[in-house]
Amino acid sequence: MPKQAFHPIADLNSKILILGTMPGESSIKKQQYYGHGANHFWKIIYSLFEQPLSQNYEERKQLLAINSIALWDVLESCEGKGSSDSNIKNEKPNDFVTFYSEHPLIKTVFLTSGKAEKFYDKYIGKRKDLEYILLPSPSPQNKWKTFEEKVQEWEVILKHL
Asked: Which domains does the chain have, with CATH numbers?
């Protein structure tokens, strides 16, 4: 059965876009971006803005909006067992032509994994009018970077807001 991505979290004030590949199993069950409890995404975002971590999904989305951050995934749908990007097959990309036309303030795209970048390059292609930055994956499977190292590398986001 194909997996379906979520709609983007974005508004007309979004200045940067953070892109994952596709929601994992836990996220799909919860219907929340980065819904796996061990994923560092939300903990990183709250650390960047020096805020206490909230477990409330609406508050999490609000923190993104307040800071002009859009969140989405490269893929609209795919097949594959489990949550690992390496298991993805029969993928279909999201419609970035429409997305970028509806969010003209976005100038920087942050990719949260090498696999997200590969799918983006394969299906969308990097535009000359946007800057692209690869971040270390917030996934709990990314054990070669500590949480602190991830936060330090993700701080580049603050320079683009």
From this structure: 3-160 (3.40.470.10)
